[in-house]
Amino acid sequence: MAAFAAATLAPVALIALGLAMGGLWLWAGLAYMALLSALLDQLLPLVESDASEGAEFPAADSLLVLLAFLALALPPLAILGATGTTLSPAEKIALIAATGLWLGQIAHPAAHELIHRPARRHVRLGIWVYAWMLIGHHASSHRLVHHRHVATPLDPATARRGTGFWRYLPRASIGAFRAGLAAETDLRRRKAQPGPHPYALYAGIAAAALALAALIGGWSGVLLWLILAAHAQIQIHLSDYVQHYGLTRATGPDGRPEPVNARHSWNTAHWFSSALLLNAPRHSDHHAHPARPYPALRLPDDAPRLPWPLPVACTLALIPPLWRRLMKPHLARLTTPPPTAT
Fold first, then answer.
1. Per residue in 192-229, pLDDT tens?
2. Are 302 and 263 in contact (CB under 8 A)?
3. To bridge 92 with a disulfide, which of 10, 78, 82, 270 should be the other Cys (CB 3.0-4.6 Å)?
4. What is the C-alpha separation between 210 and 79, in angstroms, rounded?
5. pLDDT for 225-269, tens place per residue?
6. 173 conformational bin, left if phi > 0, alpha if psi -120 to 50, beta if neither
7. Average pLDDT over residues 87-103
8. Which residues, other chains included, contact 287 with Cβ-Cβ below 8 Å and sequence gap of 6+?
9. Domain around 109
10. DSSP code of 328?
C-alpha cells in the first residue's frame, strides 16, 4: 500500500507546489507523469509478488476515496491557475498537460476500482469522478457491456486486430455510450421502481462541472475543462485498446463465446507503472475477479504479457503502423498452435 500511495500522490504534491510557486515544480510534475514510469520500469524491472489468497488491505479503499476527491478538486484548481496571471504561458501548458495525464492515468484507475466496489457509496464516488471528466457513461458501459462482451464484436472497447487506435476511437467512444445507454434502459424495464435514469445523473454532473469551469474562467475555463476531459478520455480509451487489442473469444458449437479467461487480456509486469496505475496492468485477473481489491490482483502464468510498461504501450499505440508492426509477432505467438508430439 505504501508503494501505491507514494506513486499516485507524489505527482499531486508536485502539481500543487507548481500551482503555488510555478517554475520547476510544474515541470517536475509533468516529467513525473510523462517519463518517470518508463524510466523506472526499465531501470528496475522488479515484479511485486502476488498477495496471498484471501489477503485483506484495509487501507486500499481509503486511498481510492482520497484519490477520487483529489480528482474532483484538481481540474478546477488547474483551471484557476491556467486562467490566472501568476504562471507564464509555458507553465500553464505544463500545468494542463500534467493534470490531464494524472486524470487519465491515476484518477481513471481509481474510479474504475470504485465502481467495482461492493459499497454503494464507493460506486457513486467513482461515477462522480467519471462524470466530472465528462465520461460518466463509462461507469455503465464498463460494468454492463465490457465485462460481459469483452473480446467479442459486441464490445465497443475491444479493438480488432489490425485496427489502428484513431480508427478505433470513434467506435469505442460512441459505441460505449450507446451500449451503456441500452444496457441501463433494459435494466430499468425490469425494475418495478426504476428511479431516475443513470444517464441523467451523468449529464447533470457534467453540466455542473462545466458551470463551475465557467464561474472560474468564463469561456476559457470551459474550453480548458473540455481539453482536460478529452485528454483523460483518450487515455481511458487507449488503455482499453491496448489491454484487449486483437484478442478474441472462440465461439462454441452453441454459438456462444467461450467464458472469459486469462488469455483475453494483455498484462504487464512492470513494478512502478503497476503501482502508479493501481495494478491496472494485471488486467486478466481483474476480468476474472472484478471485485478483487487492486493490491491483491495477480499475474496468471497463462496470461498474455506485453514487453513494455502500459504507459509506453499506450504511447506506441498512438502511431498505428508502428503499433501493428510491433504487435504482430506477439499476436502470432498466441495463435500459433504448439508442435505436435511424435
1. 778 889 999 999 999 999 999 999 999 999 999 999 99
2. yes
3. 82
4. 11
5. 999 999 999 999 999 999 999 999 988 888 888 888 889 999 998
6. alpha
7. 94
8. 147, 150, 260, 264, 265
9. 2-42+58-188+196-250+258-334
10. H
**HSE-up (13 A, CA, CB side) for residue 267:** 23
In a domain, 318, yes or no: yes
Strand partners, 257: 251
Picking from 9, 49, 57, 44, the residue whose alpha carbon sits closest to that of residue 29 is: 9
Residue 341: inside a domain, yes or no?
A: no
Within-domain flag for 340: no
User: How many domains, the chain?
Assistant: 1
Cα–Cα nearest to 111, from 140, 146, 77? 140
For residue 296, tell me if it sits in a domain.
Answer: yes
Task: Name the residue type at position 318.
Answer: L
Query: pTM of the entire structure?
Result: 0.92
**Burial of 212 per CB tally in 10 Å (0-12, 13-18, 19+):** middle
Which residue in 106, 96, 92, 90 sits closest to 75, CA to CA? 96
Do residues 256 and 154 touch, judged by C-beta distance below 8 A? no
What is the chain's alpha carbon radius of gyration, rounded to the nearest angstrom? Answer: 20
